[in-house]
Amino acid sequence: MPLLVTDYSWTQTDSTVFISVPLKGRKVEKVDIMSTEEYLKVHYPPYLFEAFLFEPVDDDRSTAKVGNGVAVISLSKRTNKVWEHLMITTNDKEKKKEIRERALLTYQEKLSSESRSKVEKQHAEKKYALEIMMKLEKEERDSIQKMKDNEREKNTAELAAWQLRQKQKAEEEAQLRLQSQRDNQNKRAMTEKKWTEGSVGGTVELDQRGNSEGKSKRKQANLPAPRVTGNIQVTFTPRVFPTALRESRVPEEEDWLKKQAEARRAVNADDRELKDLKEEERNPDWLKDKGDKYFATGDYLSAVNAYSLAIRLNRKIPALYSNRAACHLKLKNLHKAIEDSSQALDLLTPPVVANAAARARAHVRRGSAFCQLQLYAEGLQDYQAALKISPHNEVLQADTQRIKDIIQGTDHETQ
Predict the structure, then answer these.
(1) Whole-prediction pTM
(2) Where is the composition biased (Basic and acidic residues) (predicted)?
(3) Is the pLDDT reported for residue 377 higher than 90?
(4) Are 87 and 5 in contact (CB under 8 A)?
């Protein structure tokens, strides 16, 4: 039994009560203080100070300081008036027991709420960080894509302009050749007409006509040959990204391609691994029985592997998560045990008579993991939930009472 502290002192104002409790040489880290609106406990084994307060106080505005061998508790009154006594004057043990249990439940609910708030805050921070990172990655991808689109549009416009210039040049050359041919034909026709209508002698006409034809042939011989038309073949360096190599961020693109290849290899490896299984090894029930046999022989690692493979095949069987949580408890993987037990409880919905035993086992396994992590308030909640499902289980009753004793500081091992 703890030793009750009687050599405390207290003073008060209209709004605050000050209580000084001597610590009798105990270290600060070994002092446990619990306060609610109607109950105060200062526990430093083997000593215990508890006060059943005369009037209710505001626990949220109350404070406690430990140091120099004394614990000073400042309790903020709910109503501004002077108390006649620090504690209630009744000696009714049942009433005090009721106040103590009510205070313990209130304190446990407060701890649980703080724990949930902390987890929700951490989850919100992680979610916010992930959203920011995804937003930055999207902006970077959009920027790279915009650069690529601009470069592609620029190249397309330059190619279209070059093709237009080539077409216009070809048309101009064709018109020049056609005009040249028409001029030559007109000159020949005019020459022939002059000689046929002229009055000069035949010899002179023939000589002049011969000289004219020779000059015409020499002039045609001096004309350049027509240009040969054709197509210009343009080739580009093969690349995964459409951006020109000189415009690209090569290290970033190569890193992205490497990550994509690793992700595809991981998926392909996982698919090949499942394809390589025998027909019976693709049956979750067969794997569960195999895991149960491993657990019975004490081979917990093999049991975890069997349950994990079964979960990969079917993630909707709560017994797989609950049994794997039992293996993690044996292997002292306490956080994994909590995670698997919680997953099993999520799948065991709605709560009906058919799954009552499975829900009780999951609560006990998660509660045991919490207690081994010294999170006794959370562990007590799971054991109480299991006890509601199986209220006549004597082992559960004993374990639940032992956790309550540890929280209250009356367990013999903590003294």
Answers:
(1) 0.38
(2) 184-196, 206-215
(3) yes
(4) no
- Ranges 65-74, 200-209, 389-398, most confident: 389-398
Amino acid 397 reads Q
Which one has a higher pLDDT value, 248 or 121? 121
Q: What's the fold here for domain 3-89?
A: Immunoglobulin-like (2.60.40)
pLDDT tens per residue across span 111-148: 888 888 888 888 888 888 888 989 898 988 998 999 99
The two domains 3-89 and 280-414 share their CATH topology (first three levels equal): no
Nearest CA to 156 out of 229, 231, 234 is that of 234
How many Å apart are CA 151 and CA 154, to the nearest integer?
A: 5
Are 15 and 76 in contact by the 8 Å Cβ rule? The answer is yes
* pLDDT at site 205: 45
Is the N-terminal amide bond of 238 cis, ω within 30° of 0? Answer: no
Instruction: Provide the 10 A C-beta neighbour count for residue 78.
Output: 14
- Enumerate the domain spans of the chain: 3-89, 93-197, 232-276, 280-414
Taking alpha carbons only, the member of 273, 301, 303 closest to residue 288 is: 303
